[in-house]
Amino acid sequence: MTSQHFLTTERKKTRLYLICTLTLTVMSLDITMVMLMCVHQAVVYNEELTAFTSRVTTNKLPYAVIRSKRYDNSSWDIDKSHVGPVVNPYQFKYVLEPRNVCDEGHLLVVYVHSDVRNFDRRAVIRKTWGNTSIYTDIQMKLFFFVAMSQRGEDDDVLRAEARENDDIIQLGFIEHYHNMTYKAIGALKWLVTRCKTVTYLLKTDDDTFVNTFALFKHIEALSEDHLYVSGLLVCCRGHLKLVYRYGKWAVNRTEYPDDYYPHYCSGIAYILTADVARAIYRTSAHVPYFWIDDVYVTGMIPEAIRLRQIDMRGAYIRDVGKIDELFAGNEWYKFAFCHVPDLHHFERLWNIVRSKALLERIPDIEVVVPGRLANNYTYRYRADLPYYYVPPLTEMINY
Ligand SMILES: *[C@@H]1O[C@H](CO)[C@@H](O)[C@H](O)[C@H]1NC(C)=O
Ligand SMILES: *[C@@H]1O[C@H](CO)[C@@H](O)[C@H](O)[C@H]1NC(C)=O
Ligand SMILES: *[C@@H]1O[C@H](CO)[C@@H](O)[C@H](O)[C@H]1NC(C)=O
Ligand SMILES: *[C@@H]1O[C@H](CO)[C@@H](O)[C@H](O)[C@H]1NC(C)=O
Ligand SMILES: *[C@@H]1O[C@H](CO)[C@@H](O)[C@H](O)[C@H]1NC(C)=O
């Protein structure tokens, strides 16, 4: 694709969206349906176009310039003498694997937990934020991790999808929410062995919308703030959560005796540095299986290795309607992750985010503190802040 072609189609798209009709439809069975029609006319000024052109002719999307700082691998190995005996000798079978895995150039690997049946969700991610070919400055790789359907009824379609997109890893167990932790650990194992040179990993689900431009800004900030990019689990860190004893998420006292889970992260999206991914995978053999994967991967294992999660809750939006507010107020970059189950909504959001990202810069900021990016651009990182203190890995594994 030439940059000229890129420019003209993008210009057309830009006009299309600037003269846009924002339709916000909030639907629920018993709640009223709200339709908000907002016709927003705008003129693309010459100077904007000039700035736009100069950026686009270099065929680069803005903000994606990450002064990549590679991971210092000297402390990769966790000292096994500090953790208990092996209690989970996980065995994984990878039924389908991509031909091309990661290479030296990839800075970020995004891996999506997907259900084998969710063909349409994977397709929409590939078409929207997961289309890695549109990011020219950040080398991002995308993989989907799925398991097997009950009777193998989806096997043929999945094989065709895998051949076409080369981004599917299928694990050899049956899809079930009690098997989610197998998926999580199987994914980490695959990634730490196949993507050894990658610096960051982002875990998401197939119904998570990722504002990649804001995400890159976070990553850039993390990279600038740390001499070595290591020891990070950045997420929406939950408060202490009560263990449910009833319902779909019921857990009995044999499975989990305490009343509260350790602090853990929302599974819709979390960022790991490669060393943390590796430490979590290795430690998983020593921590008894627990089927709620978010609790296990981002709570129990970090607790076992004394890894403190870094809270970035400001970058998460729970309510899709809130995104429309941000967009209307030109604050489209003030979120990175949102749970968006409606596929049409998904595409609509992407079209808006992408056209905005081409025209508007995310304000320059000296330092971004995770969790503050969405609200406060002036705040300076201070080393004495406890929530931002990331101890070296050797300190973290003192048991
Ligand atoms: C760390 O990186 C160096 C250079 O890339 C490599 O030779 C070495 O084997 C790596 N160490 C580990 C523990 O992976
Ligand atoms: C990804 O983006 C490229 C470049 O804009 C485009 O050619 C390609 O069709 C897109 N892929 C999908 C799956 O939409
Ligand atoms: C998890 O996967 C295994 C292996 O495929 C399967 O036997 C088991 O039934 C699955 N668990 C559930 C709860 O379905
Ligand atoms: C607790 O749950 C596990 C897994 O579902 C089950 O195997 C076990 O029998 C249950 N224990 C009790 C005491 O109900
Ligand atoms: C940004 O954060 C700092 C430190 O918490 C606070 O002092 C300052 O008032 C905040 N600024 C804004 C605009 O919220």
From TrEMBL:
Cellular component terms per the entry's GO annotation: Golgi membrane
Keywords: Glycoprotein, Glycosyltransferase, Golgi apparatus, Membrane, Signal-anchor, Transferase, Transmembrane, Transmembrane helix
Membrane topology: Single-pass type II membrane protein
GO biological process: protein O-linked glycosylation
Gene3D superfamilies attached to this UniProt entry: 3.90.550.50
Transmembrane segments: 16-37
UniProt-annotated location(s): Golgi apparatus membrane
Top class in the EC scheme: transferase
Domain of life: Eukaryota
EC number from the UniProt entry: 2.4.1.-
Molecular function GO labels: hexosyltransferase activity
Membrane among keywords: yes
Short name of any one Pfam family annotated for the protein: Galactosyl_T
Family listed: Belongs to the glycosyltransferase 31 family.
Name this protein carries in UniProt: Hexosyltransferase
Gene source species: Paralvinella palmiformis
